[in-house]
Design a protein that fits this description.
7-stranded mixed sheet; 395 residues; alpha/beta; single chain; Aspartate Aminotransferase, domain 2
């Protein structure tokens, strides 16, 4: 065994941090605990019987290709389906603008690899998606957090004046993880205005966009931009099945060309069998009906959880009211620490994720992320009741 293994690790590895969510899941998976910790889709909504049929058909008719290595950019038919769906929204997308990835997490890693050198700056929201922050940190980037979108122009302007021009703005416009918030049309235009003014990229992470429960869909940043300055990340994990680990990256052709090269060094190609099954699921017109079923179920769970918060939470606790997605964000009264609450909550057999983990500046100590998609409606209510009891013990 190497005596000083730590000294051999790269600087990138030294900057890697374990996911707070993954560590908490180890605790929260105990059978007696009601867990709001993971961002997990509900397994009872997976279209298992249809997928059995799809898998058998792929093996029967297309096994030579489905079980072989595939092109790095992804299965052509699946890419066509992704492009077709964007075009229905009015997005000017073509095959040359899309690469299939091993879920959107790989998109984040690809973007980090393509654009970040040690010491580069990324502007992100406060709070923001934890695994993206992990990726940026692994590539030794510095993160500047923006709590209110109105602060974005001033923050970027200050960074530019200091000689720290950001490489990109990372943003989740629809039903944000962890907060569940959605950018208004004016806010979307403002983000693009800042990007255009300072000539920086926007990375639009959009895993939840199609999980809208109410209100009208707003245009993507990619559509509003129209200049090639936005990179959009998507995934089938939240709208189909997460186990297939399929996502996509939508960007101008020059970026896609570099993304293909980066992905070749990562995994050569994403699972071809999974891509073939997914494309067939669409082509046989199962997707839209399944998505409607998922949306209806999550809407009911969201409504039930919000009602439970109104019923059980003590005064001084506030929370977001998402129009879609999988999460809401809870804020404790000033002076309370979610770390202390977590220990009490585990004793009450309920778990959540510390909001501090989603803040690149170490703030958010009195916040927590709650997932409402995974547990049943009944367990969601019981979990909120237990969580409220734990909060009362702190007050």
């Amino acid at each position: 065994m190497v005596a000083n293994l730590k000294n051999l690790f790269s600087e990138s590895v030294k900057n890697m941090k374990s996911s707070a969510i993954r560590e908490l899941l180890k605790v929260s998976q105990q059978p007696e605990i009601i867990s709001f910790a993971g961002g997990l889709p509900a397994p009872d909504l997976f279209p298992v019987e249809i997928l059995k049929k799809m898998a058998a058909e792929v093996l029967e008719t297309d096994s030579a290709l489905a079980l072989q290595y595939g092109p790095t950019e992804g299965d052509r038919r699946l890419r066509e389906i992704i492009v077709e769906r964007y075009r229905k929204e009015g997005v000017a997308a073509e095959l040359k603008n899309v690469i299939v990835t091993t879920a959107s997490q790989q998109c984040i890693d690809i973007v980090s690899k393509l654009f970040l050198n040690p010491g580069d700056t990324v502007v992100c929201e406060l709070p923001s998606y934890l695994a993206a922050l992990q990726s940026f940190a692994a590539y030794q980037a510095k993160m500047a957090g923006v709590r209110h979108k109105g602060e974005l122009a001033a923050t970027v302007g200050k960074l530019v004046a200091e000689g720290r021009k950001p490489k990109f703005i990372y943003i989740i416009p629809d039903f944000q993880n962890p907060a569940g918030t959605t950018l208004s049309l004016d806010e979307r235009k403002m983000v693009l205005d800042v990007a255009h003014r300072y000539d920086i990229l926007v990375v639009e992470d959009s895993p939840y966009r199609e999980l809208r429960f109410e209100g009208d869909a707003l245009p993507t940043l990619y559509q509003l931009d129209g200049t090639g300055q936005v990179i959009t990340l998507g995934t089938f994990s939240k709208i189909f099945v997460p186990g297939f680990r399929l996502g996509w990256l939508l960007a101008q052709e020059d970026i896609i060309a570099k993304a293909i090269v980066a992905k070749q060094a990562m995994d050569l190609c994403s699972p071809v069998f999974d891509q073939k099954i997914t494309a067939r699921f669409f082509d046989q017109n199962y997707f839209e009906g399944n998505l409607k079923k998922v949306i209806a179920a999550y809407r009911e769970k969201r409504d039930g959880m919000l009602a439970a918060f109104e019923k059980y939470m003590p005064a001084g606790v506030t929370w977001t009211r998402p129009q879609g997605g999988l999460f809401l964000f809870l804020t404790l009264p000033e002076g309370l620490d979610a770390k202390d609450l977590f220990n009490l909550a585990i004793k009450e057999n309920v778990a959540f994720v510390l909001g501090e983990a989603f803040h690149c500046d170490g703030s958010g100590k009195n916040t927590l992320r709650i997932n409402f998609s995974y547990m049943s409606k009944e367990k969601n209510e019981e979990g909120v009741k237990r969580l409220a009891q734990a909060i009362r013990l702190m007050c």
